[in-house]
Amino acid sequence: MIEINHVNKWYGPTFQVLKDCTTSVAKGEVVVVCGPSGSGKSTLIKCVNALEPIQGGDITLDGVKVNDPKTDLPKLRSRVGMVFQHFELFPHLRIIDNLRLAQEKVLGRKHGDATAKAIKLLERVGLQDHAKKYPAELSGGQQQRVAIARALAMDPIAMLFDEPTSALDPEMISEVLDVMVDLAREGMTMMVVTHEMGFANKVADRVIFMDRGEIVEDAKKADFFGTPRSDRAQKFLSKILQH
Amino acid sequence: MGTGTYLDLLLSGLVVTVKVSVLAWIIALVSGSVVGVLRTLPSRTASWIGFCWVEFFRNMPLLVQLFLWFFVLPELLPRSAGLWLKQLPNAPFWTAAIGVGFFMSARVAVQLQAGITSLPRGQKQASTALGLTTVQTYRYVLLPMAFRIILPPLTSEFLNTIKNSAVAITIGLVELTGEARSMQEFSFQVFEAFTAATVLYLLLNFVVVTAMRFLERYVAIPGYITGK
User: Fold this and answer.
1) CA B92 to chain centre
2) What is the rounded end-to-end Cα distance, in angstroms, of chain A?
3) Which of B120, B122, B221 is the closest to A92 by Cβ?
4) What letter would DSSP give residue B221?
5) How far is A61 from chain B (nearest CA, A)?
6) Which of A114, A84, A109 is nearest to A97 (CA)?
7) Tell me, what DSSP letter sits at residue A135?
8) Secondary structure element (H or E) that encloses residue A197, with its range
9) A87 by DSSP, 3-state: which?
C-alpha cells in the first residue's frame, strides 16, 4: 500500500533529515514509527502524502508515485487520512462542517450525503451530540476524535497519524487510542508515529525505530519488544519502558 | 450659488466623501487581499510581485501618488490615451478612489499577510492533507480565520481611508473638506466651517466603528479566544 524506497530529504543545503529510508506498509497492516525527538519520524510520515517534498528516492501510494510531478496530489491526498498532533480542526467551522467541507469540496458529495456520513462518523467516535459546536468548545481528546472522524469521512485507503496523543492530557489519551485500536482491528491500513508503546504492543504488526534520520530497526512487533537488534533501540526501549 | 444652504453644501461634500471612501476601501480590500495572499505563497515570483506592490504603494506620500496618477500618468501614456484620460468625466473622483485605494491596499496586504502567517502551520497542512487545493485552502480555511483575526486593525484602516480621502482636495475633488473650504471662502467663517466638517467626519467614523463592532461580534467564534 505504502512503499518508501531510499528516501533522502534535506532541510536547506546541509541538514539531512532523512537518510536512505526504506520501508513499506502492506494493506491492512498497522505500523508504528517511534524514536527520539528530531529523529525524522514526523517528517517521514509527512512525506508519504507529499506534505513535505523529498529530494531523493521515491514513495508510492497504492501504486501511484507520490513524488512524480504529474501526479494529481490533491486527489491522491484525499484518499489518505491524516491526523495531526495539534488536531488542526478548522476553528471557524462547526464540528459537522469540519467533517463536511472536504467531502463536498474535494469529493463533490451532495450536502445531504456528506451530512449523513458526518453524523455516522461522529456517532462512531461518540460525539454526535457535539455536531453543532465549534472546535474550541470541545476538549483536546474530543477534538482529536473529531479529527479522526474528519479523516475517515473521506473513506481513506490508509490513515497516517502524526503523534496523535502527544498534545493531550493523560486522561484523554485513552479515549483517542480506543478509537485507533478499533480502527486497527477493523483492518485499516495505518502508519502511526507515536510514543505510546502500549498501543504498539496491542495492535501494531510492525514497529519501525528511527534515529537521526535513519531507520535503525524495522521489525515485527514481537521481535522489536522481545529482542531489538540495535543498541540504540534497546536503550530507547529500556528508557521509555522503565516506568 | 444663490440656492441652497451651507448645510446642503456640507452634506453634498459628505456624500462625495462617503462615495470616494467606500469605493477606495473596496479597491483596497480586493487588491490588498490578492497581494497579501501572494506574499504568503511559497512561489518566489508571487512573493516578489507582492513585495514590489507593497513597497511601491506604501513608500510614497499619498499626495505624491495622487499627483502621479492625476497629472503625470496622462503625460506618460500615448497622446490619444492621455487625452482620453484627462477628458474623463469626474476624473478627480475616480483618480482619488483608485489612488487612495491602491495606497491603502499596501497596508491591507501587510495586515492580511500577518493574519495568515499567525495561523498555525498545521492548518494549511491539514487542509492540504484532506485534498483541498491551494485556492480552496485559502478560500475555506485560511482566509476566514485570517480576516477574523485582523478585523480590529482593518477597522482602523477603513477609518484611515476615509480620512485620507481628504487629500483628494488637491486634485480638485470637492468632498467634505473641499466644501468646508469653499464655505469658508464665501462666508469668512473659518471656525464654523471646519467645526461643522469635523463633526461630520467624527459622526461618519463613529458609524463605521460601530458597524465594525457589530461585524466583529457577528463573526466571533464561540469558545475561540481572539486575544480581546
Assistant:
1) 16
2) 36
3) B221
4) P
5) 14
6) A114
7) G
8) helix A197-203
9) coil
Dist CA B224 CA A220 (whole Å): 44
Taking alpha carbons only, the member of B83, B31, B68 closest to residue B167 is: B68
| Chain B nearest C-alpha distance from A75 (Å) | 6
| Integer Cα distance of A89 and A30 in angstroms | 24
Which A residues 177-236 touch B at CB under 8 Å?
none
pLDDT of B225: 64
Kindly list the residues from chain B whose CB atom is less than 8 angstroms away from the CB atom of residue A135.
223
ipTM of the complex: 0.91
Determine the Cα–Cα distance for residues A226 and A132; give it in Å rounded to an integer.
47
Rounded CA-CA distance A14/A131 in Å is 47
Contacts of B112 (CB under 8 A, 6+ apart): B32, B33, B36, B37, B146, B147, B150
Q: Which residue is listed with cell 477574523?
A: B148
Best A76, A105, A137, A155 member to test B by mutation, with max B CBs in 10 Å, is: A105
Other C-beta atoms closer than 10 Å to the C-beta of A20 total 14
Q: Are strands A206-211 and A30-34 parallel, antiparallel or unpaired?
A: parallel
Q: How far apart are the first and last CA of chain B?
A: 51
Between CA A34 and CA A228 the distance in angstroms is 13
- In Å, the largest CA–CA distance within chain B is 70
Check the CA dihedral B18-B21-B24-B29 and report its sign: negative
- A143 in Cβ contact with A86 (< 8 Å): no
Rounded CA gap, A53 and A44, in Å? 10
Residue A226 or B27, more confident: B27
- Mean pLDDT for chain B overall: 91
Q: What is the pLDDT of residue B227?
A: 43
Sign of CA dihedral B82, B84, B90, B93: negative
Check residue A12 and give its pLDDT.
Answer: 86
Distance CA A123, CA A136 (A): 20
Enumerate residues 6+ apart whose C-beta is below 8 A from A8.
Answer: A16, A18, A19, A20, A21, A54, A55, A56, A57
8 Å CB contact of B132 and A74: yes
- Dig out the grid coordinates for A204 from the structure: 501494531
pLDDT, one tens digit per residue, over A73-84 is 999 999 999 999
